[in-house]
Structure formats: structure tokens, C-alpha cells
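User: These chains co-purify. Model them together.
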Amino acid sequence: MEIDDKKESIQTKKQNEVETIIEVGKFYFLNQKFDEAIAEYRKAIDLDARNADAYYNLGITLEAISDQDGARDAFEKALELEPENKGAREHYDRLVEE
Amino acid sequence: MRQFAVIGLGQFGSSVALSLAQKGCEVLAIDRDQDRVDEIADQVSQSVTVDAADEKALHSLGMKDIDVAIVSTGEDIEASISIVLILKEIGVKEIIAKAVTQIHGAILKKVGADRVIFPERDMGERIAESLASPNVMDYSEISETHSIVELVAPKKFWGKSISDLKLEEDTKVSIAAIKRKVPVVTPEGETEFKEEINIRPRPEDKINRSDTLIMIGSFEGIQKVRGIQ
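Assistant: Joint model of the two components:
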């Protein structure tokens, strides 16, 4: 029981850390510091490769700097992890159409 | 409101007819194939199944009130030439015709087409341009010597003002507009970007990392700019 609690606490801590990193990424993005935002989102993905939000935000940032291929791959990954992600779906469909 | 007629509802013709109709224009769509007409009938103002190369049939449609006729029976070369001739006789104000070869295009001009277009050739050129340099988002020739290009802002331009770039002096290429993706937060709290366009930017306007530039210039000038990293 104690081990389970410990595991859960580590998991929650990691989750919080990833969310904080994504928030930092968003801050950079909103300040048009695109390279810094990309570095943060990649850091979040390194910690949690199943985080659809990190991939979505990475996609938005890459698309903003016209890296269409990179953005498409990121949205595709976000959709793979979270098929109902509406934003990722809209961006992905538009990029595929282009 | 200007009235359009689209003659020949293949892939190109039907897409022209539908796009015009979606923009609220009056469109008369014509083809000799009933199925093609049926496919777009409820999306355009009027549609008719008729062989447009038949002079009497075309006269009977009251085409003289049409402002612009688009002849897109390109593959049937003989038919497209006849149709342009008949439309000219009827007195249609502007005739745009689709050609498949240079000679076909030259004949269409001779018999009265005001403008000849080569959609496949033009699309091929555009795709080649964007493949040859991935930072070219769009490209089209506006004359025999000049083109307009949409280019992702090269790294060398970031943070600089248009006057700092000295583009016009060095290459005679001018920046007609800047498209910028501006980061925003949606009401749901998601990050997004919206596209803003700055038409005829001022010399002191600065280029951003997230900009694409719409530039006009000679082929040589544009080529020089595309070489800038």
C-alpha cells in the first residue's frame, strides 16, 4: 500500500512538472519567443511522451513559424494520443489539405 | 452584379463555377454531359445541358448578357475554338479560355479569347517552385518578366525593418504585404495564432520570425531574394 502511494505521488509530481513546463512553453510562445517555446515543449515530451497537449502546443508553434511538415507530425501525434482533440484535428486537416 | 458562364464542367470548369457561386456570383453552368450538369445544378444560379459547340444552341441561351465566359472544354480542342468564336460573335464582353498546348492557346487568342489560361502548366510551375525551395509558399507569374511570390521570412530578415533590408535598392523586389501569425489565447484557454496581414508595409515596419512576405519583382530579383537564407 505504501509503495503504491509512493508511486502515485511520484507520478503526480512528474505530471505537475510536465504541466509547468508546458505553461512555460506557452508563455514563450505568447511572447513570440518561438525557439524557446519549442525547446520547452520538447522537454515536456521527453518527460512524458504520451502528453497530447505538449504535442498540440508544439504543432501550433511550428506552424506559426511555417514549419508545416514538423507541425503536421506534431498534430498527428497529438491525435494519435487524443483522437478527440478538436484543435489538433482542425490544424492537421488544414495542413494535410495544403 | 457580374454574370458568368462556365462552359465545360470537367474538374477545372466545375471548380470555377462552384467557387464563383460560393462568392455570390450569378453563374450559368453549361456542359453537354447531363451527369456533370446534374452534379452542380443545385449550387449555381442556372445550369443547362447543351452542346456549346452548336452555334444555334449557344445563341438560344441569351449569352449576350453574360459579362465573362470561361471556356473550359480544353481537352476538346476543336470544340473550345468553335465556342470562343461563337461567343465572340454573340458579343460576350470577356472570354477566358483554357488551353492545353501553346499552339492551342495561340489559336484561342487569334479567334477572340481575351485571356488564355494553362491551368495544368501553371499548377506544375507552382508546385515545382515550392518543391525547389520549401520556403516558397506560393508563386505566380504576373507577366512575362515579373512574378509574385509568398516567401517565409528568411532568417537574415528577422528583427530588421524593411528600410534596413535595402531590398528595393539591391534587387528591385518590393514587399507588397506581410502576413504574420500572431500568438493568441482562445476563450477556452488554448494557445492559437491568428493571421494578420499588413498591406503595403511602411519602411520602418519590422520583419518577424513568424512572417511570410508577399513580394513582387522581376524573375531575377525574386531569384536573388530566394537565395537569401
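Helices of chain A lie at 2-30, 34-47, 52-64, 68-81, 86-97.
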